[in-house]
Specification:
It is built from four helices and six strands. By secondary structure, the protein is an alpha+beta fold. It is globular and about 50 Å long.
Length: 122
């Protein structure tokens, strides 16, 4: 399962307003003259894949570990491909790994998530 999206600065502003985040890293220019995207925004990819596609509706997130490896800037195109790395069928728990890369092929984020899935999904 994979997904791809380009994050415009307006989306960053909307998220910052929604969660009342006033961090200057996201809302002002960085020392390099670029704005950083909120990592939470990029992390939202997980919900689209984990809850929507694989395993799907009814999935309950149990644990998530995110390693941020590089900044993501407005208008970067981010791609992630989810891979199942462990299945505990008796407990209905699936562990997946989501490496996120930008349009240059640079890894910007790696998320590993454990989820309880509906019995109909195993």
């Amino acid at each position: 399962v994979s997904t791809q999206s380009t994050w415009a600065y307006e989306r960053v502003q909307q998220l910052a307003l929604a969660i009342e985040d006033q961090s200057s890293l996201e809302l002002e220019s960085s020392p390099e003259g670029k704005r950083w995207n909120q990592q939470l925004l990029i992390d939202c990819f997980f919900s689209a894949i984990g809850g929507g596609d694989l395993p799907g509706n009814g999935t309950i997130l149990l644990n998530q570990n995110a390693q941020y490896k590089a900044p993501v800037y407005p208008n970067d195109t981010i791609t992630t491909i989810g891979e199942v790395i462990k299945v505990q069928k008796d407990k209905r728990i699936v562990t997946m790994r989501f490496p996120y890369t930008n349009q240059k092929g640079e890894e910007v984020l790696v998320v590993e998530s454990s989820m309880m899935v509906p019995s109909t999904k195993l």
